[in-house]
Write a sequence for this structure.
C-alpha cells in the first residue's frame, strides 16, 4: 500500500511539472535538447523569452479592429516565475484601451475565433474569477500561455502572458524582481 501511494505521489509530481515540458513551435529545433522527459530551450535567455512573449502580446493586440483600439500599453518589465528548481519562465502583460463605448467581450470572443485553428489550444472561462469572459491561448507543448479578457478599467482588454520555460543560467543572479 505504501509503494502504491509513493508511486501515485511521483506521478502527480511529474504531471504538475508537465506544463514546463516540451518544445515550442516558436523555438528553433537546434536550441532545444532533451534531458530525460523534459525538453527545454537551453539557449533561450530571459531577454529572448521576454522579446518573444511581448511580440506575441502585441500580435494579439494588433489583431483587434483598428477603429476599436484607442491605445496599447505594454508593461516594460515582467517577472520570472519558477517552473521547477532549474527552469523559469517570463511573465508580462499588455493593456488595450478600447474606443469609448466599445465593450471588450465581443472582441475577446473574436480573438478566440481568430486563434481557434492556431498553434495554441484554447480554453475559456465564463465567467473567469474576475467575473468576465476569458480566453486562454495555451501552447500544447510548453508553458507558454496568454490570458485575454476584460481589463480592470472599463473598456479595456488585458493580455497577461507567460513564456515557455527555460533554464536559468545566471547563477548567482537574483531571479526575483523586474526583468
Amino acid at each position: 500500500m505504501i509503494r502504491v501511494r509513493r508511486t501515485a505521489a511521483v506521478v502527480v509530481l511529474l504531471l504538475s511539472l508537465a506544463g514546463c515540458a516540451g518544445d515550442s513551435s516558436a523555438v528553433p529545433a537546434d536550441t532545444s535538447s532533451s534531458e530525460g522527459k523534459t525538453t527545454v530551450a537551453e539557449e533561450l535567455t530571459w531577454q529572448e523569452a521576454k522579446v518573444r512573449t511581448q511580440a506575441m502580446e502585441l500580435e494579439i493586440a494588433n489583431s483587434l479592429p483598428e477603429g476599436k483600439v484607442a491605445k496599447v500599453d505594454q508593461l516594460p518589465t515582467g517577472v520570472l516565475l519558477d517552473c521547477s528548481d532549474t527552469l523559469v519562465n517570463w511573465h508580462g502583460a499588455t493593456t488595450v484601451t478600447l474606443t469609448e463605448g466599445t465593450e471588450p467581450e465581443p472582441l475577446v470572443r473574436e480573438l478566440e475565433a481568430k486563434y481557434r485553428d492556431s498553434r495554441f489550444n484554447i480554453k475559456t472561462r465564463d465567467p473567469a474569477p474576475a467575473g468576465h469572459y476569458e480566453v486562454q491561448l495555451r501552447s500544447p507543448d510548453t508553458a507558454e500561455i496568454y490570458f485575454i479578457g476584460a481589463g480592470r478599467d472599463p473598456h479595456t482588454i488585458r493580455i497577461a502572458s507567460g513564456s515557455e520555460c527555460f533554464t536559468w543560467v545566471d547563477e548567482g543572479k537574483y531571479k526575483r524582481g523586474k526583468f
Notes: The CA atoms of residues 33 and 115 lie 28 Å apart. The chain has three helices and ten strands. The helical segments are 2-17, 46-62, 104-115.
